[in-house]
Every structure is written in C-alpha cells, then in structure tokens.
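Re: the request from the purification team.
They wanted to know what the chain is likely to look like in 3D before they choose a buffer screen. I agreed to run a prediction and write the result into the notebook, where they can find it.
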Amino acid sequence: MKSRSESRKWLQQARQSWLLLTQGALWVGTILGGFLLPPPVGVSAADEKTWLRLGQFIVAVVLGLEILAARRWNQPRHSFRWGAVALLALVIGVTAFFRYQQLTLAWTANYAGGKVVTGAEFTKQGRAYTEANPKISTDELIFNFAGKTGEIWTPESIDRRRLVLAATYVSCLPLFTLCLIAVVQAMQSSEHIARRSTKSR
C-alpha cells in the first residue's frame, strides 16, 4: 500500500511539474513567436503546428533543466556564471536568428503574396528554361511555372532547404529561452548580494 501511495504521489508531482513546464513553454513560445519569430517559412499549415509543438517541447525541456540548475546554483557567487550563460545564449541565439533570416532571403521567393522555398538542384525542365532565359529572376521563374516549384527544382532539394530552415527556426527558441531564464536567475542571485551588503551595513 505504501509503494502505491508513494507512486501516486510521485505521479501527481510529475504531472504538476510537467504542467508548469508546459505552461512556461507556451508562455515563452508565445512571447518569442509573437514578436520575434513568425512560423517557419515554406511549411504547410499542418507542418507549421508540428514545428511549433516541437519548439514548445524543446522549450519545456530547457526550462526544466534550467530550473534544476537554478536550484543547485542559486548562491550570490553564481550570479556571474548565470550572466555569462545569458550572454552566451544571447550571442548564439542572435547568430542563429540572423542565419535563419539570411537563409530565408536566399532560399525563398515571392509568389501570390506569400513565400515559397526554392531548391538547390534544377530539374531538366527547370535547367532548360533558365538556360533559355538567363536573366530571369527567381520570382519571375516561379510565376512562369504557376508556382509549381517542383517542376523547376527537384523536390528533394526543396525539402532539404525546408528542413534546414525549420531546424534553424526551432533552434532559436531554446536559445532565447535559456537567455531569458539565465538573466532572471542572474538578477535573483545579485539581489542576494545586495541584501547581504545592506545587512552588513
């Protein structure tokens, strides 16, 4: 009976912890996704939800790991380390963000008021058309093919680029989450230092 009650208690605590982590992940994901990162470019509505959920799951795991680390490293002397983690995560996150923007500009084109992902390898038809029209822009090329990018570039090369774009997008979310939580933890640790200094006076 004891083991059953203990396992039930553990399950309830685990559920509460995961609920908090999920809520935190949704909150952070909404903040980041709302003003910083729109959904990954070039994915369908169904795929968009999949990538966003993956991002939220990764954010939840990062939050959980940071909470564990914060419980262990919560002394005033750890404030510098948390600040360094925040700065490092910010630098890597901003680099990933700009890389995502760079790839989006390089690997997408405009069609029908939206963005479509281009490929890296031409099909026979696409190569013949571009060789016959060497000065044609990518937007015009896609327009002339009525938006059927699979007829211009191989579907495999388009899918590879689409996956790289989505992976770069998803990698930004946990990095910015790590930065946010590390800043909060650094501030809390520095508050302990300020309290100690006022008490010593």
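For the purification team: The beta strands are 108-111, 114-117.
Please add any questions underneath this entry.
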